[in-house]
Design goal:
With about 375 residues, this protein is α/β, with parallel strands linked by helices. The chain is built from 15 helices and ten strands. β9, α13 and β10 form a beta-alpha-beta unit.
C-alpha cells in the first residue's frame, strides 16, 4: 500500500475515533417471514479488485461493482427475493491478506468505520434496518484484535466478527498465524465476554502453499476445493487444540455447509480419537462441538440433499440460511428456499432455517 494512502487512512481513523459514537442499536426490518443472510461480502476500493470468478452470466466488472455497492442493486435484489436483513463483512482475504501488522491494524479500523458509516446512511435502508455487520480484524496480535472487536461491538453495534482463515505474516508472506494457539486465548476470552459469534471464512492460500498444492491442477484453487480443505483444517484445529474446552460458551459460525466437516463426522471422530494417546488436548469429540459451539450456513451451497443429510448429522438448529452474495446470486438462493418449502421442510422448520436461529444467535430481538 502506498505510504500516503496509509497516512490518510490513519488520519481518517483518528478522526472517526475522536468522534462520540453511540452504539447502533439494531432495529431490523422484520417482516415476520423474510430471510436473514449472514455471509454476504462487501469491499472498498483501497483493498483492490476481486479476482474471484463471478457467477455464471456475470462479468468480473459486475462482481466488483456489486462488492462495492450496498444501497442500489444489493438492496433491490434483497427486496425482490425476500431477504429481510443482511449481515455484511469484508470480502476475503481482507485484513488476513495484509502481512504488515501496523498496516493491517490501521486498515481493519478503516474498514470497520467505513462499513459502519455506509450501513447507517439513509440510502442503505438504515431507516428500516436492512443491514448489520461483522467486524474485520487484524489477527497479528490477539490483544489488538480483542480491542478492535470490543470497539466495533460496543460502539458501532456490530454483531460479531468475520475472519478470513489464517492471518498471513512475515516479510515473504510465509508465516501463517492460526487462532487455535494459546496466545489467542485473550482474544477468545473477549469474544465470550461480549457473547458474539466469530464467523470463519475461507481465503486463497499464500503463494508457497498454492504453488506446492495446486500448480498441477490450478482449477482446484478457490471455492471448488482449496477453500474447504484449508479452512476445515483451521476449524478442526480449534477443536483438537482445546479452544472450545477452554471457552465452552464460544460461538463460531462456519459457512459453505460447514466446509464439508459435517459430511464426514463419523470418520473424523473415529480417527482423531486415536490422537489422544499422543497428547491431543481435546476433551470431547468434534461432533459434540457442533451441538454446543459451532453453527453452519448454507452460503454458496444450495443442495437440498446435502441439507437433509446435515439435518440428520448435526440438527437443523445448527444450520442457517446464507447466500454468499455477490459470488452467488440471491435469485439462486430463493430458488433453493422455494424447493425447501415444497415439501422438504415444514413451515416451522423453514422459519428456523431462514431466520429464527439467526435471530437468536445474533440477539436481534434483544
Amino acid at each position: 500500500m502506498p505510504p500516503l494512502q496509509v497516512v490518510f487512512i490513519a488520519a481518517m481513523n483518528l478522526l472517526f475515533l475522536n468522534q462520540h459514537v453511540e452504539a447502533r442499536r439494531i432495529h431490523w426490518h422484520d417482516t415476520g417471514n423474510g430471510s436473514i443472510a449472514l455471509e454476504e461480502a462487501w469491499s472498498i476500493p483501497e483493498l483492490g479488485l476481486s479476482t474471484a470468478a463471478p457467477p455464471l452470466g456475470q462479468t468480473s466488472a459486475e462482481l466488483n461493482a456489486n462488492l462495492l455497492d450496498i444501497s442500489d442493486q444489493r438492496l433491490a435484489h434483497m427486496d425482490a427475493t425476500g431477504v429481510d436483513f443482511m449481515v455484511l463483512s469484508c470480502a476475503s482475504p481482507c485484513i488476513q491478506g495484509i502481512s504488515d501488522p501496523a498496516t493491517a491494524e490501521s486498515m481493519a479500523i478503516h474498514v470497520n468505520n467505513e462499513l459502519a458509516t455506509q450501513i447507517s446512511s439513509p440510502s442503505a435502508g438504515n431507516n428500516t434496518g436492512r443491514f448489520g455487520a461483522f467486524a474485520a480484524l487484524s489477527m497479528h496480535n490477539a490483544s489488538t484484535a480483542a480491542m478492535e472487536l470490543k470497539r466495533t461491538v460496543q460502539q458501532l453495534g456490530f454483531l460479531g466478527a468475520l475472519v478470513n482463515d489464517y492471518q498471513q505474516s512475515g516479510n515473504d508472506n510465509d508465516t501463517l498465524l492460526f487462532y487455535d494457539q494459546p496466545e489467542y486465548d485473550i482474544f477468545w476470552s473477549t469474544v465470550t465476554e461480549l457473547d458474539v459469534p466469530v464467523y470463519f471464512h475461507p481465503r486463497v492460500n499464500v503463494a508457497p502453499i498454492s504453488t506446492l498444492l495446486y500448480t498441477q491442477a490450478p482449477w482446484l484453487r478457490g471455492a471448488g476445493q482449496e477453500f474447504a480443505v484449508t479452512l476445515s483444517n483451521h476449524v478442526l484445529g480449534l477443536c483438537t487444540n482445546g479452544v472450545f474446552d477452554r471457552f465452552p460458551s464460544l460461538k463460531v459460525i462456519v459457512g459453505h455447509m460447514g466446509e464439508r466437516i459435517p459430511s464426514d463426522l463419523d470418520r473424523i471422530d473415529k480417527e482423531i480419537a486415536r490422537q489422544k494417546v499422543l497428547g491431543m488436548p481435546m476433551l470431547r469429540n468434534v461432533s459434540s462441538y457442533f451441538t454446543t459451539n459451532i453453527w453452519t450456513t448454507s452460503s454458496g451451497s444450495f443442495s437440498t440433499a446435502l441439507l437433509e443429510y446435515h439435518q440428520q448429522e448435526i440438527g437443523l438448529d445448527r444450520i442457517m440460511y446464507s447466500i454468499d452474495y455477490p459470488f452467488e446470486t440471491m435469485e439462486d438462493g430463493k430458488v433453493f428456499l422455494d424447493e425447501l418449502e415444497d415439501g422438504v421442510l415444514t413451515e416451522k422448520e423453514l422459519k428456523q432455517f431462514t431466520r429464527e436461529t439467526a435471530i437468536a444467535l445474533l440477539k436481534l430481538n434483544e
